[in-house]
Amino acid sequence: MNRKVNVGVIFGGKSAEHEVSLMSATAIINAIDKEKYNVVPIGITKEGSWMLYSGPIEQIESGEWEGISNKLLKDKPKENVFSIIPVGKEDHSIEQVVPMGLANKIDVIFPALHGPYGEDGTIQGLLEMADIPYVGAGVLASSLCMDKIYAKKLFELEGLSVVEYVVVLRNKLKKNMGEYIAEIEEKFEYPVFIKPANLGSSVGITKAHDRDEMIKGLNEAAKYDRRILVERSIECREIECAVLGNDDPMASVVGEIVPSHEFYDYEAKYFDDGKSKLIIPADIPKNKSEEVRQMAIIAYKALDCTGLSRVDFFLEKETNKIYINEINTMPGFTKYSMYPLLWQETGLPYDKLIDKLIKLALERYDDRY
Ligand SMILES: Nc1ncnc2c1ncn2[C@@H]1O[C@H](COP(=O)(O)OP(=O)(O)OP(=O)(O)O)[C@@H](O)[C@H]1O
Ligand SMILES: [Mg+2]
């Protein structure tokens, strides 16, 4: 391509991680090499309306972009909308933009979206249908990584250790609570972790220290998903590794995250003014970090990841054993986030990382028969 490549950066979205996405997208847009790329910011409101955004980048993070887009849309609808496709319901207004018509204007999309409706294969499917290359994992890998139960099953198939778990079905919870409790108490000692199978960012996750808390935790998790996992709680250090690439992925140095709360919950992650500490590289023995890096690559390939992923581990203090916890296919992407910082430490600075991700997206797309 001799002309500049048009990169659509999608941000916001319907997930609980809307705000985090605004931060990631702002950092990405600011760092994209403007000599090589034109940026087309595309915001999705919490209600799911898509809007092109042509206002100041500084007003994305605060959420002000939404009002600005709305105003621009009313003033000059034609100029602000690539294509308006009336979809489904009658109450869809003009700002209901669907990206089908973007294909001829946008060369590649960077979906800077985290969690459900972003990291879970849904937007990836939409982009496949619209025939637009995009950064990151494909449909299957995205949804597998989002599903804590299926991800564990596949990790186990590769011989990677996962923390022991029990699966609970929401529908059977009322009738079979007694049986579930018996099964869990037989298998684990308190505390246990209770997690909805399909959410990210610690939403709906609780740590239960006794039976009462477990029942509460199960009911809480049931608000979010039909399937729930109950896991043995381990005394651990949290180690993370960044992976980058398509068929021959590379692993970064490893980092450690030291949470400020009892566990690395939503509050600790985003609202504690950075009191959770990132230690890069992690202060662990060389053989352990090598083990983590190898496991990260095995896991990445096992779930068919492409582009990028942050692979998260637990290092059990008592046994020194490494468990794989999960893969995040669109990890937090601000300049202070673990994923880019790990690459920086490995020798790939933020702007080069963005460039590499866009190239990987185009490569994956061109690789098709
Ligand atoms: N079995 C466990 N033993 C000890 N701590 C745990 C366990 N499971 C989860 N945790 C703690 O809870 C945090 C959140 O759990 P987990 O990473 O599984 O959820 P998540 O919502 O998918 O997070 P993410 O936002 O990274 O996708 C972990 O970072 C860790 O601090
Ligand atoms: Mg996690």
Average pLDDT: 88
Per CATH, what is the topology of the largest domain? Answer: D-amino Acid Aminotransferase, Chain A, domain 1
Helix-strand string: EHEEHHEHHHEHEEHEEEHEHEEHH
Sheet bearing the most strands, described?
5 strands, antiparallel
Strand content: 15-25%
**Span from first to last CA?**
20 Å
User: What is the approximate shape?
Assistant: globular
- The oligomeric status of these chains comes to single chain
Question: What fraction, in percent, of the residue positions are helical?
Answer: 25-40%
Proper CATH architecture of the largest domain? 2-Layer Sandwich
Number of helices: 12
Number of DSSP strands? 13
CATH class of the largest domain: Alpha Beta
If strands are numbered along the chain, what order do they take across the biggest sheet? 11-10-9-12-13
**Which segments are poorly predicted (pLDDT under 50) over 5 or more consecutive residues?**
79-101
Entry summary:
This protein is α+β, with helices and mostly antiparallel strands and about 375 residues long. About 35% of the residues lie in helices and about 20% in strands.
Topology:
Blueprint lengths: L4 E8 L5 H14 L5 E8 L5 E3 L12 H11 L1 H4 L27 E4 L10 H8 L9 H8 L1 H10 L7 E5 H18 L4 E5 L9 E3 L2 H12 L4 E6 L3 E10 L4 E9 L7 H5 L6 E3 L6 H17 L4 E10 L5 E7 L9 H9 L3 H17 L3
Parallel strand pairs: 1-2, 1-4
Antiparallel strand pairs: 2-3, 5-8, 6-7, 6-8, 9-10, 9-12, 10-11, 12-13
Helix pairs in contact: 7-8
The structure holds adenosine-5'-triphosphate (ATP) and magnesium ion.
